[in-house]
Amino acid sequence: MGSLLLDSIHQPSDLKQLDHQQIVQLCEEIRHFLLENISKTGGHLASNLGTVELTVALHRVLETPKDAIVFDVGHQCYTHKILTGRKEQFDKLRQIDGISGFPNPDESVHDAFIAGHGNTALSLAIGMAWAKKLRHEPGLVAAIIGDGAFTGGMVYEGMNNIENLDNLLVILNDNKMSISKNVGALARYLTHLRTTTAYYDAKDNVSSFLDHVPVVGTPMKRTLTNAKTLVRRAMYHSTMFEDMGFQYIGPVDGHNEEELERTLRTICGRPGPHFLHVVTKKGKGYQPAEINPGSYHGVSAFDPDGMPDPEVAPKESFSTVFGKALVKEGGEVGNLCAITAAMKYGTGLQFFAHSHPERFFDVGMAEQHAVTFAAGLASQGMLPVVCIYSTFLQRSYDQIIHDVNLLKENVVFAIDRAGFVPADGETHQGIYDPAFLSQVGMPIYAPSNYAELTYWLHELLRGAFQGPRAIRYPRGGEDAALAKHPCTGSEYDFLTKKAGTSIVLVSYADEMAELIEAERSLNENSIECDTLKLVKIYPFTEKLVEDLMNYKIVLFAEECIAVGGIGEHLEYVLRQNGWNGRFIHRAVREARLPHASVAQIRQAVGLDAESLAQAVQAAVMKGEFES
Prior knowledge:
The structure is a single chain. By secondary structure, this protein is an alpha/beta fold. Helices cover 40% and strands 15% of the residues. The strands form four sheets. Strands 9-8-10-11-13-12-17 form a seven-stranded mixed sheet, with helices on both faces. α8 (198-211) runs antiparallel to α9 and α22 (512-524) crosses α26. The longest helix is centred in the first third of the chain and has 22 residues, at 20-41. 50% of the residues are buried. Mean pLDDT is 87; it is low at 193-200, 228-237 and 307-313.
């Protein structure tokens, strides 16, 4: 194989030296590079295959970092990273000491802002654009927003504040997808825009004609421009984006780099704010991803030559076990409803959607609405189960406090991806929900295996429980060591308990596997200790507090932020009851976790078995307590 054009691209300015045919070839090489590398490391595939030409065109026209490119969510930034000098680092994509799967200013001056959650790019871009104006700095700020993000409300809050920003460009990357297929009125509106071009065709034809009419052509064109609102409303009923104050351009073919580049150059020569509507195909260039983009949104390492059947059931995980269990509960509980925020497949709710479609609601990328919508359902006697990733549940905290908790509405929160999450780094960790839910006194359950998940989900959906409550569970499958421990139906279990022991190790969910290993290590060093597994992690029962009062050393380990975490609550309760032993709280004290495997994250924050055992050994060595 001959030399690749891609090997000659080390910075965005290198793109400007290529002709059109070379650009077409470069885009093909980038797609091949993405497929070859992501199939080895895992990562976000379909979204990046769909934005190759758009990213190339942006870097051909703009000049970063003088011009800023702000990605919404950011999982479509791989081509941007390739073009800004990070191609050689893709062998460690989303791995410890490697590059992030999201934009990160700590990595490169070409990354304008960190981006892991949706709906944020427009607000960020507006702030950056205003800063440029106030500081009299040159440059354009371009926000790239997927159509999925337009199902969330923050985008519209931003659009309401774009007046007079002549240095702002919003690019709608319209691929008909967020992660699950887009839903709702906005998705139908964008489809209408994609399929109706009468107004734009007529406008272009009239404008072109008047340009060639001597003397009166220019005044007539100006008059028609002033009357364009009336014409547009008559022919096309307007576009929402123009009504908000944008100059709307599109739809444009997002895979025609030459057309994209020409359009972007035209936009840069005119005052904004501009709204460019680009239509792309998620998974472009790789047939399996084109056919089934949802399955190729985020992937582990895979065989790129394979053609998996999208109808094959996904590998068993906490998400699928939860989803199947909820189907059974839905058949027995007639008022049970399931709600998700653009994560039908990620949360395992595809099973419920098929079995009980009339009681399944995907509200789009709108977690705040999901929670308040659930409160409304509950207020009328329904039993909503809100299924959201831990990292995204943070976005609905105000609604949890005011719309669910104040009136004690009967809402069940099913929190997926709780605890440490591999590869995606600081923006996707599930380390806050125990702290912020416990602040409002919500009962929280954290099963450590499938049997406990199924049992406690059943219990939480029954009449013995009223008011808000939560069940949280990790990403992926159950730990083999934890699966060996049967579900007892108790809110906490001693996995080991020996007579006369003065040390106890306490945790919940997946972290219990590390405690089991830590106990074994301590025993080998002649330090006897008990191990206690919480299922109900908050609030604490009187019996739990009584049991723990008997120990001189309590080590509490959790994949949760330390400040306000369950460990802090537990130590407070023990101290209030007169306990004066040694409490060792091991939790997350640095919120910026690395993009790494869960084992590596635990090691980085001192939650691995070896670190836990060493903490207990250090306490014992001080001689204050006997083991």
